[in-house]
Amino acid sequence: MVQVSHRGKHVFGDYYHFRHRTVVKRSLSDHRGTQVRLERDPKVTWAEQQVSKKRKKRDVYQEPSDPKFRDQWYLYNPNRRDLNARSAWELGYTGKGVVVSILDDGIEKNHPDLMQNYDPDASYDVNDGDPDPQPRYTQLNDNRHGTRCAGEVAAVANNGICGVGVAYNAKIGGVRMLDGEVTDMVEAQSLSLNPQHIDVYSASWGPEDDGKTVDGPAKLAKEAFLRGVTEGRNGLGSIFVWASGNGGRELDSCNCDGYTNSIYTLSISSSTQNGNVPWYSEACSSTLATTYSSGNPKEKQIVTTDLKSKCTDSHTGTSASAPLAAGIIALALEANKNLTWRDMQHLVVRTSHPAHLLTNDWRTNGVGRKVSHSYGYGLLDASGIVALAETWTNVRPQRKCVITMVSEPRNIGSHLSINMSVEACMGTGSHVTSLEHVQARLTLSYNRRGNLAIHLISPSGTRSTLLHPRPHDYSSEGFNDWAFMTTHSWDEKPSGAWTLEIENVAGASDYGTLTQFILVLYGTGSASSSPPEQAPSGNDNCKTLDLRQICIECNAGYYLFQQGCVKECTAGFSLGSQPVNYSVGNFIPPASLDSLGTCVHLNQYMRESPDSFMASQGSPGVQLQLSSRLPIAVAVLSCMAIIATFAGTFLMLQLRSGAQIKLPSLEGGPRPRGGLQPWRK
């Protein structure tokens, strides 16, 4: 210990750490001479060379001892073809404190490999209307699906039974809702069960995967999704994980499934053990990522719990992929409880990777990420997602920019291309600068829907296949405001030229019409262009309110026009000043007469010369008086001009003809509604 005035790293008290330039870093031998010289210095009370010590973490992790764990190749595989779950466990994340519910045909709550983690508050029987989600047993074990999915998420570790779940310390529940008539109400009730308690909902079902169905959530289920992401988890948003579909053999498209195609769901596809596209997998642009599942008969399948307290090693399909993803998401939530539903999708995009997944449609998008219609952004990485979750900062609020690209009928013919440059709602509170989801809402008719291929090309050149031909789809119904969704342009800039291509792959014999194309851009704005805040009653600083009583403010270079912001005034309108608009919705009494740059109709206000406009800008007091009294002045001057013109004409006619002309009376009093006033000389 020594009193020092030299540079050194303060440890605590009078202890300091110094580095000597003659002492080799990480040397295998000590520097006895330097040590002796320091000890002999009368100003040094104590000195000791610091050496590296071996230390081992005293964590509780040990490789699961369950008999089937060695067969769970997708959780840990020496050749690294796995979901990297073991590395996440080694970091201390096992899903503790996270609740997952399986929306399916029930869950065997007394299964010995589930019982310890079973959560009754995350369970319900919607089909029979009681709290017990126990499946209905049949001779063919038809209702084993939910129990199998539950084991993938949270089968208990180190109990000598079967295998383990990805999040083997998470709480697991089940909703029995597929073993009976499925209605909009049944779906909505399942999706909205206990949203302040359940963190993750996992669903491995959807419309028929027959290659011809176009179906999705109805009114109540849509409302349940929306309420879930806005109110669930105390406002952070419920997380919905969805299996992308098993219609690959029927050449189905998961973009025709309104559940996997929703921005509110995290759509998960499948890969085989060897990294191939399974025969049942559907390709579409809404898929976000991939986990493992079954493949050909020679490839291993998924190990999990089964009915009647049994274990199986033959769970298959994208039904097996979604619960694995739900388990990985539970690990990420344990690492960071404050993640929102959109944060989770950002984490998935950033940490998934192509790995060894094989397909011929891997493409690099506008921000340099590999993305595929078969795999999304690739294989989920459990260790990668928890590591990023630990330090993740919540994304900025979601913005939604809606742009009408086509509003009049366009003949599709053999090929129709729509190209339009957009500014992504620049100048408004909806301005998007970084993309998340993109929707193309299309309304079109076609005599054979399955012959259509639809593509959307972003300003960065990323080409998303919104719909590939479906040879089994003979329908002539077309699409009615169907929202095709793509995740392939994630983090790209949305401003620029977007192109929609609709192709008839069958030839000129087919015909149809595109009647509407609305481009919907979801994402975030820059920090410098935050959206306008809601104006409280009596807000004197607000220039104009929209129908929801939200204040409209235009950024520099943009002008107010019909409760929106535009860069240039349209024909018939000119830049001018307009009093504060308090006429929309509830009246808010103005305390001042602030004005702002607006597009005003040329017949509404006097056209100002540049000089007079500049003069008014330089004198706020004059500006206020002119802008507030201008309509009265214009009216008076107009009346005087009309009277003078009429009088002049009358006198001229009088001089020429010498005749007496009858004029309408200008005396006061209201004009009768039954007719004109009597004439008089």
From TrEMBL:
Protein's name in the database: P/Homo B domain-containing protein
Lineage of producing organism: Eukaryota, Metazoa, Chordata, Craniata, Vertebrata
Q: Which InterPro entries match?
A: Furin_repeat (IPR006212), Galactose-bd-like_sf (IPR008979), Growth_fac_rcpt_cys_sf (IPR009030), Kexin/furin (IPR034182), P_dom (IPR002884), Peptidase_S8/S53_dom (IPR000209), Peptidase_S8/S53_dom_sf (IPR036852), Peptidase_S8_Asp-AS (IPR023827)
| Annotated transmembrane regions | 630-653
Q: Which residues form the P/Homo B domain?
A: 395-527
Q: Could you tell me the Gene Ontology terms of the biological process aspect for this record? A: peptide hormone processing
Highest rank taxon of the organism: Eukaryota
Family to which this protein belongs: Belongs to the peptidase S8 family.
Region of interest (Disordered), residue spans: 111-133
Q: Which GO terms describe its molecular function?
A: serine-type endopeptidase activity
Cellular component (GO) terms are: Golgi membrane; trans-Golgi network
Give the active-site positions: 104 (charge relay system), 145 (charge relay system), 319 (charge relay system)
Write the record's keywords in alphabetical order, separated by commas: Cleavage on pair of basic residues, Glycoprotein, Hydrolase, Membrane, Protease, Serine protease, Signal, Transmembrane, Transmembrane helix, Zymogen
